[in-house]
Amino acid sequence: MQHQGVHYDTGTTFRGPGYAISTRRANLDTSVVRRELEIIRDDLHANAVRVGGSDVERMTAVTEIALGLGLEVWLSPAFFEYSPEETATRIVAAAKIVAPMATTFPGRVVFVVGSELTLFMKGLIPGKNVTDRLERLKADPSQLGNGRLNEYLADLVMRVRAVFDGSITYASLIFEQVDWSPFDYVGVDHYREARTKDRYVKRLEPFLSIGKPVIVTELGMRTYRGAATSGALGFGVTDTTRLWLHTRPLIGRFFRKRLKGEFQRDETMQARELDESLNELEGSRVTGVLLSTFSTPEAYTDNDPRYDLDMDSMSLVKSLPGGRHGTTYPDMPWEPKESFAAVAGHFATHQAKMI
Question: For 64-120, where are the E strands, in sequence order?
Answer without folding.
Answer: 72-77, 109-115
